[in-house]
């Protein structure tokens, strides 16, 4: 879990000249050392001059964990907190499955590799 900060979602979006607001991860891949990752997202919205604009379907982002967290610019307040999770997190042999989740405020990152997506 990530503790809430002091910034409203509107304030964070207003700070962005050109970017994308990503919402609802729907796929993920993390290497065994928990260093490199890639996430697919159900939808996003472009941010242009501090305003949400066009919807983008199925964008993805990837990175290296330490670099990703060093690029954290702002953390959202309590009103931006969402609870995310999956009913099927599996590992081990034989396979063990459990429901997992975490709470997180919205966050603003810079320098993230975002790719794919469609109008």
From TrEMBL:
- Using the record's annotation, list all stretches that form the Metalloprotease TldD/E C-terminal domain: 2-114
An example GO biological process term is: proteolysis
Which InterPro entries does the protein's record reference? Answer: Metalloprtase-TldD/E_C, Peptidase_U62_metallo, TldD/PmbA_sf
The record, for Pfam families, names: PmbA_TldD_3rd
Q: Which GO terms describe its cellular component?
A: cytosol
Q: What GO annotations for molecular function exist for this entry? A: metallopeptidase activity
Q: Which family does it belong to?
A: Belongs to the peptidase U62 family.
**What is the protein's given name?**
Metalloprotease TldD/E C-terminal domain-containing protein
Q: Which organism is it from?
A: marine sediment metagenome
């Amino acid at each position: 879990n990530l503790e809430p900060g002091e910034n409203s979602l509107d304030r964070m979006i207003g700070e962005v000249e050109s970017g994308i607001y990503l919402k609802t991860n729907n796929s993920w891949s993390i290497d065994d050392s928990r260093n490199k990752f890639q996430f697919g997202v159900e939808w996003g919205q472009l941010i242009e001059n501090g305003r949400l604009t066009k919807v983008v379907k199925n964008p993805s982002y990837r990175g290296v964990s330490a670099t990703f967290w060093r690029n954290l610019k702002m953390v959202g307040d309590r009103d931006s907190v969402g609870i995310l999770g999956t009913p099927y997190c599996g590992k081990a042999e034989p396979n063990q499955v459990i429901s997992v989740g975490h709470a997180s405020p919205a966050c603003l990152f810079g320098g993230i590799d975002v790719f794919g997506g469609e109008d």
